[in-house]
Amino acid sequence: MHSRWPALFALLALGGLYAALPPSLVLGGARWLLLLLISLLLVPMLISHFRGAHTTNQVLGYILNALVTLAMVISLALLILALPAHLEKPQELLKSAASLWFSNILVFASWYWRLDAGGPHKRAQRGDHASGAFLFPQMTLPPERKHAAGIKEWSPNFVDYLFLAFNTSTAFSPTDVPVLSRWAKLLMMLQSIISLLVIALLAARAVNIL
């Protein structure tokens, strides 16, 4: 269970970032609603995990990821629509762009972590991670190099996917982790587009009007 805590904290952080947005960028203006929904859904997720109901846990995880993704996309669309009318003050615009940029990283890190190689439960069952949508450097090490590095069985955890998502949002590429799966390539393209919109269109506009 300890390997899941970073992913759960990331979801709570997403709720906090959403609550930091101005009411005009939140559907209905209810900034704390997403954090409340995340907290409520985490309860049955934890219960299903401890009871071994992994299919239920997986479905709840997909629902929660879809919920935070939808909230982020709606807020991004509202921010883009607000730009021509200058509805947001420059300081609020920068703050909103930063919140959405960090949200983009956490949202897609959660998707990669939940989807790669069948999800965290199936990866844990297999022990050594030898195949998946991403080719991590540890997967290419020969047995003797793994033994020398003190790695007997290696499997990616949430931090590995967070690092991948961070690189995608900053460098617009996976850097040291090649992408093997088509669904992963599509998700990374979408993440890069969102990051580009936030950085190039929103943050740059805010700096110009300071």
UniProtKB/TrEMBL annotation:
The keyword Transmembrane applies. The chain crosses the membrane at residues 29-47, 59-81, 93-113, 186-207. Keywords: Membrane, Transmembrane, Transmembrane helix. The keyword Membrane applies. It comes from the Bacteria. This is DUF1345 domain-containing protein. It comes from Geomonas silvestris. The lineage of its organism: Bacteria, Pseudomonadati, Thermodesulfobacteriota, Desulfuromonadia, Geobacterales.
